[in-house]
Specification:
There is one protein chain. The protein has seven helices and seven strands, in the order H-E-H-E-H-E-H-E-H-E-H-E-H-E. It is of the alpha/beta class. The protein has a single domain, classed as Rossmann fold (3-Layer(aba) Sandwich), CATH 3.40.50.720. The chain has a seven-stranded parallel β-sheet with strand order 3-2-1-4-5-6-7, with helices on both faces. Helix 2 packs across helix 7, helix 4 runs parallel beside helix 5 and helix 5 runs parallel beside helix 6. The chain is globular, with a radius of gyration of 17 Å. The structure holds NADP nicotinamide-adenine-dinucleotide phosphate (NAP). NADP nicotinamide-adenine-dinucleotide phosphate (NAP) binds next to helix 2.
Length: about 260
């Protein structure tokens, strides 16, 4: 049987994209407690929403925080070039950036609520940012050690699984994210042969993103960020290079596209 990628990491460099809150911040804390990661790079968007992360960096020499708005391509390019000056290679990248609601945008329940500007915003943040990451991460992932580039998607982005409808922009942007990264996984299999690109569904997790929609979710189905990260790391711990281009749920099952 093929060796899992995580089992090959002895001393590695990790990158968390969107690590200032929610699932991303819980990943940062978990990776800092793992001595196999010599350095943990983390991106955040604004200083004001990143107080806990920036405070953590004051007490952890291994933690490096980089400002990056994922909707601005030049910031992605510059941020990753900055990391390249500290390390020639990354071994684990987890992208936790995404939004469901923000000021002026709530998920659409009906066609009459569709607004093209909102749809564009969903695609910009939830889909396009990830493929831009794939574009600029290539030089940091194309090396001779097995590595993972994982992105948090959502089961709601599965076209086959769509039975409820609604949430047009979020759903479609996650479906587009899946297609963009599945396509990137095929190109990576030729250009960065030691990388597995993975998409993950975290389960409903208690964060800012899910807060307005938690009513009706049974308590046992609403995960803490610590639980979600533990479950996702368990799944990632089983990943081999043969899994490149796969979409996994938090329980390790494969989700339909
Ligand atoms: N929570 C759930 O139940 C659930 C379920 C399925 C999938 N997911 C997915 O899980 C991922 C993490 O979400 P979460 O639940 O942890 O939500 P969260 O606490 O709201 O975190 C979202 C992260 O995305 C960042 N972000 C948003 N827009 C950005 C931009 N333009 N540039 C840079 N960063 C940006 C946020 O930064 P700021 O703090 O600066 O806004 C924050 O770090 C998302 O992809 C989400 O779709 C979550």
């Amino acid at each position: 049987m093929a060796r899992t990628i995580f089992s090959t990491i002895r001393s590695g460099q990790a990158l968390v994209i969107g690590g200032n809150r929610g699932i991303g911040l819980a990943f940062v804390k978990q990776l800092l407690s793992d001595p196999r990661f010599d350095q943990v790079f983390v991106t955040y968007r604004t200083v004001t929403s990143s107080t806990e992360l920036l405070k953590l960096a004051q007490t952890h020499d291994r933690l490096h925080c980089i400002a990056m708005d994922l909707t601005i391509e030049s910031q992605i390019e510059a941020g990753l070039a900055d990391i390249k000056t500290s390390t020639p290679e990354l071994h684990f990248v987890i992208n936790c950036v995404g939004f469901l609601h923000e000021e002026g945008i709530t998920p659409e329940k009906a066609l009459r609520q569709i607004e093209s500007a909102n749809l564009i915003r969903y695609f910009q943040v939830n889909s396009i940012s990830a493929v831009l990451l794939a574009k600029y991460l290539l030089p940091l992932l194309n090396h001779n050690k097995p590595n993972i580039f994982a992105t948090i998607s959502a089961k709601i982005g599965s076209i086959e699984d769509n039975r409820l409808g609604g949430w047009y922009g979020y759903r479609a942007s996650k479906a587009a994210l899946n297609m963009l990264l599945k396509t990137a996984s095929i190109e990576y299999s030729r250009r960065s042969k030691q990388t597995a690109i993975i998409l993950l569904h975290p389960g409903t997790t208690d964060t800012r993103l899910s807060k307005p929609f938690q009513r009706g979710v049974p308590p046992e189905k609403l995960f803490s960020v610590e639980k979600t990260v533990g479950l996702l790391l368990n799944v990632l711990g089983t990943v081999t290079l043969e899994d490149n281009g796969s979409f996994f749920s938090w329980d390790g099952s494969r989700l339909p596209w």
